[in-house]
UniProtKB/TrEMBL annotation:
It comes from the Eukaryota. SUPFAM superfamilies: Pectin lyase-like. It comes from Dipteronia sinensis. This is Pectate lyase. Coiled coil: none annotated. Pfam families: Pectate_lyase_4. Pathway: Glycan metabolism; pectin degradation; 2-dehydro-3-deoxy-D-gluconate from pectin: step 2/5. Its EC number is 4.2.2.2. PANTHER family: PECTATE LYASE, PECTATE LYASE 18-RELATED. InterPro entries: AmbAllergen (IPR018082), Pec_lyase (IPR002022), Pectin_lyas_fold (IPR012334), Pectin_lyase_fold/virulence (IPR011050), PEL (IPR045032). Keywords: Calcium, Lyase, Metal-binding, Signal. The keyword Metal-binding applies. One of its GO terms (molecular function) is metal ion binding.
């Protein structure tokens, strides 16, 4: 009898925890409210992933000395610089985090990272920084807009470890209202392919310290006024660049009416916020 009562109590407690009717929705936190009000939540448990909520500071996203990371499907914006602080690391270890500049996504000594299908805009410093020996990074299918300094690859001119950096930048939409650094590269190797550049103020692709850049099949829509220069090279090191622009300025790519019409339709859908059609036509 005692065993039966014990089992009944356990079953009742589980029911009270899982039942959507035991607690009013207004009394639930934002995560529980997402799923516990649906009596059939268990029938499609994969949808529970949509209920995850992250609470982050204004410093946004930092990957530090990590590998095999995927950053997918996020909206990151209005990131601001933060002073040095402490964070909790693996196994509850307290770690010191240095000052951050206000980037949307910052990779420090990271490798094998895929940044895909994110929307990034309006951050204090840049949208994506890949620095201090980070390598084997793919940046694809992202929408980067409303930003001065968009993407930095390479820490500074004196950081030699970045000569081993390898980054692929493909199928991204830059703009509107982007100024420069799409990307700005130092030292290593970058493959920049099939990106849409919706204008710029200073330049689209730039760098220093003898980088190797292979640019293929990008579509550059130059601004109607101001600087129309696509490539920017800094100082005397520009002469030693290894720059391959295969397909970038092909007559077919620039003058194809079908291609221009597709881009115009894509931009129209983006301005109207038609997300479903935008995914089909624009790949975002």
């Amino acid at each position: 009898m005692a065993t039966m009562l014990c089992n009944l109590a356990i079953a009742l407690s589980m029911y009270l925890v899982l039942s959507p009717i035991t607690i009013l929705a207004t009394q639930m936190n934002v995560i529980d409210r997402c799923w516990r009000t649906d009596p059939n939540w268990w029938s499609n448990r994969q949808q529970l992933a949509k209920c995850s909520v992250g609470f982050a500071g204004v410093a946004c996203f930092l990957i530090y000395k990590a590998s095999e990371v995927i950053i997918h499907g996020l909206y990151i914006h209005h990131c601001r610089a933060e002073q040095q602080s402490s964070v909790m690391g693996p196994n509850g270890k307290i770690m010191q985090l240095g000052k951050v500049d206000g980037d949307a996504i910052r990779l420090v000594s990271a490798s094998k990272v895929w940044i895909d299908h994110n929307t990034l805009y309006e951050c204090e410093d840049g949208l994506i920084d890949i620095i201090r020996g980070s390598t084997d990074v793919t940046i694809s299918n992202n929408w980067l807009r409303n930003q001065d300094k968009v993407m930095l690859l390479g820490h500074d001119d004196g950081y030699i470890r970045d000569t081993n950096m390898k980054v692929t930048v493909a199928f991204n939409h830059f703009g509107p209202n982007c100024n420069q650094r799409m990307p700005r590269f130092r030292h290593g190797f970058a493959h920049v392919a099939n990106n849409l550049y919706q204008g710029w103020t200073q330049y689209a692709i730039g760098g220093s310290m003898s980088p190797s850049i292979k640019s293929q099949s990008n579509l550059f829509i130059a601004p109607k006024s101001g600087n129309k220069e696509v490539i920017w090279r800094l100082g005397s090191h520009g002469s030693s660049w290894k720059f391959d622009s295969g397909g970038m300025f092909s007559k077919t790519e620039l003058l194809s009416e079908k291609r221009v019409l597709a881009v115009q339709n894509c931009l129209t859908l983006m301005s109207k916020g038609s997300k479903l059609q935008m995914q089909d036509l624009c790949g975002h």
